[in-house]
């Protein structure tokens, strides 16, 4: 087993609570002025990074894909510089807009770690790669499912937070539901056998979701930049502000979570654009 495959041990500030902060879908560019739907993504990302320390300190940060829009080394260096300011142990996974090989090269060192399994006293966090080369939808290959199975078997008494980029259930947004995770069934089958609590967390949809499937809590988180309008049959940007999520994972399996929005800064979005 390589060092990356071994669980990274997380130190918590509270004995019975693991606090995480999730950022997702930053869509950064190497260029300072790079825009997604008219919004300068470096500005919204920086606003999120500046807002995080205004709240109780987290124990770790999760960056859950589509961190780049132009698949450039400069975009990942921008993310690395921002995350460095927080000083939190930080972990990442790729989205459909990312270059996984380049991420593995650039997103290391400092407080950024390549580990895909994290462990606290009561919780195990498993980061899965749902990236499919040159496709917008996601899929978990056999290697990712095997890692999940082994992780759950190794720590059966820990609650499990499974993290990926693509949504594994419909979010009632027609166009988005065609580009989600194509094979969620094996993941849910493994979680159904797990004796402790399970939660699945993702990005990709640029909107809030909080649901449940067979006892598994299901959560999605808004983007640090542009949001997508919920319940829309076709692509449409939303008016909601950039955001991120806090999660408090309790020893008994409860999850308390809050969305944070950057409401105090005006961000311009071009609502006439019909794709990204």
Description:
The protein starts with 7 loop residues before the first strand and ends in a 15-residue tail after the last strand. The longest helix is centred in the N-terminal third of the chain and has 14 residues. The chain has a seven-stranded mixed sheet, covered by helices on one side. A six-stranded mixed sheet has the order 7-6-5-2-14-15. The chain has a single domain, classed as Purple Acid Phosphatase, chain A, domain 2 (4-Layer Sandwich). Helix 1 runs parallel beside helix 2 and helix 4 runs parallel beside helix 5. It has 276 residues and is α/β, with parallel strands linked by helices. The model has no long low-confidence stretch (mean pLDDT 95). The radius of gyration is 17 Å and the shape is globular.
């Amino acid at each position: 087993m390589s060092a990356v495959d071994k669980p990274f041990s997380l130190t918590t500030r509270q004995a019975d609570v693991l606090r995480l902060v999730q950022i997702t879908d930053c869509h950064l560019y190497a260029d300072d002025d790079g825009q997604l739907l008219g919004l300068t993504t470096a500005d919204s990302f920086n606003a999120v990074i500046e807002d995080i320390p205004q709240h109780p300190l987290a124990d770790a940060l999760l960056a859950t894909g589509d961190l780049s829009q132009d698949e450039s080394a400069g975009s990942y260096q921008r993310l690395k510089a921002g995350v460095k300011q927080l000083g939190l142990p930080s972990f990442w996974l790729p989205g459909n807009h990312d270059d996984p090989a380049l991420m593995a090269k650039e997103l290391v060192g400092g407080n950024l770690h390549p580990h895909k399994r994290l462990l606290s006293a009561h919780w195990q966090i498993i980061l899965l790669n749902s990236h499919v080369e040159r496709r917008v939808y996601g899929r978990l290959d056999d290697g990712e499912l095997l890692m999940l199975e082994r992780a759950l078997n190794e720590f059966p008494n820990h609650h499990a937070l499974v993290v990926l980029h693509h949504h594994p259930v419909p979010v009632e947004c027609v166009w988005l539901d065609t580009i989600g995770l194509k094979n969620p069934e094996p993941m849910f089958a493994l979680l159904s056998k797990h004796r402790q609590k399970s939660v699945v967390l993702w990005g990709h949809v640029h909107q809030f979701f909080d649901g449940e499937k067979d006892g598994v809590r299901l959560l999605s988180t808004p983007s640090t930049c542009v949001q997508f309008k919920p319940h829309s049959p076709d692509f449409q940007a939303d008016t909601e502000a950039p955001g991120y999520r806090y999660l408090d994972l309790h020893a008994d399996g409860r999850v308390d979570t809050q969305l944070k929005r950057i409401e105090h800064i005006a961000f311009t979005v071009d609502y006439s654009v019909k794709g990204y």
